[in-house]
Sequence to fold (447 residues):
Amino acid sequence: MKGKNLKKGRDIPPPKGKLGILISGIGGAVSTTFIAGVELVRRGLAEPVGSLTQLGTIRLGKRFEHRSPKIKDFVPLADLNDLVFGGWDIYEANCFEAALYARVLNREHLDPVRDFLSEIRPMKAVFDRRFVKNLDGTYIKSGSGLRGKVNELKADIAEFKARNSLDRCVMIWCGSTEVHLKPLEIHRSVESLQKAIDENDPSIPPSMLYALAALESGVPFINGAPNLTLDVPAMVDLADSMGVPVTGKDFKTGQTLMKTILAPGLKSRMLGLEGWYSTNILGNRDGLVLDDPESFKTKEESKLSVLEYLLQPHLYPVLYKNYYHKVTINYYPPRGDNKEGWDAIDIFGWLGYPMQIKVDFLCRDSILAAPLVLDLVLFMDLAQRVGMSGIQEWLSFYFKNPMVKENLYPEHDLSIQSMKLKNTLRYLMGEEQITHFGLDYYMEESS
Fold:
C-alpha cells in the first residue's frame, strides 16, 4: 500500500458528488446482475447480500468495549445512490436486453428496474478475436492502431465524466478471459510498453489497452479476470507514477472460494493431502469462452496456484510434497450461469490413514460475483481519495490470484485476507489494529 501523502481519519476527503463506475463487459452476466442489484437495493426492493461494505461490521478496540459498527458507517465510502454506471461491450444490447439474455435474474427482479437498465447502453468496445477466440464481437471500435484505440477509450472516459458531471471514476474489467499470455520484455517498463503500443505489437491484448486508458486518465483499475493485464512491471510502475491504485486478479467466487476456506483448515490441523480433483460445468458466455483451450489455460493457472501458496509444500513436505491437483471446466449450455463445482479431496491423518471430503457446490457465478464488484469499486474509490497508489494487496480477499509486489508471494488464506482488509480500514481511520498478540491481548483475556 503506497501513498506519498496518505490521508487518515478526518483528513480523508469525503465522497462528494457522483461516482462513475466504468465497466468493460457491461453487457455480461456479472455486470448486469451487479447493476440491477444495486438499483433494486437503492429502491428498497432487495438486500445487498454478499456485500461486506453494505452488511459487514468491523470490531474496534477490545472485545469488552462492544464497538462493532457497520463498515459503511465507519469508513467514508460512496453512497449507493451516488453511483453512475457506464461502460463498453462487444454487443449493442442495452443492459435490460443483456440481462434477459444472461438469464441470471428472474423477471420479478428485472421488470421493476427495466426502465433504469434500458437506459444504460454500451459504448463500442475494443476487441481482438485472437485473444478471445470463441466470441465474435459486433459492436467494436474501428480506430486505427493500438494507440488510436487507447485514445478512443480515454475520450470515452472523459465524455462519460462530463456528461454525468463526475469528478471521480473507477474502472473494472468484467470482460472475458483472454488467452494465456506470459510477461515479455515489452512489459518491463512503461517506456517499452508505450513503444510496443505505438508499433502495434501483436502481443498487446485489449485488456491492457483499457488499463492503460484508465491509468493515464487517473482512474483506478480493477482486473476481475485472470488476464495478464496489470500484472506486469510497466503497469504497476505507471500506476505508481500516476498516483492511481490498481488491484486484481480474477474474482474469487465459487470453487476457489471453497478452497481458500477448506485448505487453511486442513493445514492448521496438520492433515495431509494426497490429491484434490476439481471439475466444473458452466453454460454461460464465460463457459463458452473457457471452452477454448488457450483461454482455459489462463483460468487454470489462476485456479491451480491457490493450493501451492496455501499449503506451502516446501515447509511441510511430509504432508503436501506430492499431492495431485487437477482442475477442469466443461462448457454445458443447459446450466447457464448456474455453475456446479465438484471437488473430490483425498486427505490423510494420524499414521497416514486415508480420509475423503466431497464438496458439490451448486452456485450461481454472477450472484456471487456481483457483491464483489460493488465492494471493490467502493474500496478503490476510497483508496484513491486516501492517496494510495499501485497494488492494493489489502483487497486480496476478493481475488483468486491476488496481485502482490515483485518477489512476494500472495496470501490466499481467506481469514488472513479478511484480517488484512479490516486492519487496513482500522489503520486508515486511526483505530488500533487487531493482532491478538502482545501484553494488551493477555490483559484483555484476564479482565
Notes: The chain is about 40% helix and 15% strand. The longest strand covers residues 272-282.
